Amino acid sequence: MKKSEILNYLQGPRRYIEGVELYAKYGENKNLVQTFKRIGVTQSSKAMLMEELRKTAGISESEFKGIRQKAEKPVMAVTVIKAETKAKPETEKVLMELAEMFGVTVDELVKPEKRQEIIEYYRNEREDSEVTAEKLQELEQYLDDLGMDAEELADVLDDKDRTIQKLTKALEAAEKKYQDAPATTVKVIRFREKFTFLNDADCPDILKILVADMFTAYAKYKEAHARLAAMPDDADTIETARLSEEVVENFVTDREIWEELEYYQEHHEILGKYEKVKALQARQELTAMSDVDLMKKRQSASAQISKQKKIIDDPKADREKKANAEKVMEEWTAKKTAIEDEIEARKKK
Hints:
Blueprint: H1 2-10, H2 16-26, H3 30-39, H4 43-57, H5 61-69, H6 72-85, H7 91-101, H8 106-109, H9 112-122, H10 133-145, H11 159-180, H12 183-194, H13 205-229, H14 237-267, H15 275-287, H16 291-313, H17 319-348
Helix pairs in contact: 1-2, 1-4, 2-3, 2-4, 7-12, 9-11, 10-11, 13-14, 15-17, 16-17
């Protein structure tokens, strides 16, 4: 499956973005994925990508050269098919990939002064410009892949002028896309640019789930806060208390998830303070245990529950000690339930 999919790609037009996505799916070096995205499409990055895909698929150098020689006809056939069926990428993806290619944020990308700076670079009007004809051709292909093509410019005689005009149009279109984008899309873009690891192939699934939970919690917080602010002075105290509790709960959830994301961004490991993360980690720990260790864990949980129950029932124990025992017993009861769920799941296998 892996080799056939990569072979199919190599026999096609070899679009850079599609190649990076394919390497992200099958390649072993996940850091390289970010390198390919950061550098963007250049002659050297594309050559490196082809070589990594070749090795990933287990294709010999001689076989790879053979693919390259017979690629002309398949390229035309695949290009025609994709031109008819390929859907336009979403605004978020287009803007973020375009910004990443030029090494800027989306906010910077849509500013006229930054647009002019990028154009001057590709025209070789800046001191740090070293833009070759091959690099311009790759840029044009990259813009086409993003759905930023401009067929009406095909009549421009000079290849460089055509590419620069296409680049100009693409950047202008990006600015319009950004201006027309709903507030939620803009928020997601800024959010993903802050927490760049969410785009990594090795990003833990739980963190992606947390992002969705955080946006939901924030929306509920805003809604409850607005309803609470609109409550009249003589409003029902029970409803007011309920809304106040909803505001606090969702605000705390939003902040706890934000803390998890910031910790992972800095340390590249999960913090585990948020309840959903804690529960998942506990479940993963149980899944990794042997049957014998799992049974021992259940016995330990039962013993702890019994111990805390004695403290709670002890008439000589003070209120603080009993309250602490109730909390500990609640934790061990939840652990025991999880252990028993895991035991039952193994019985069904």
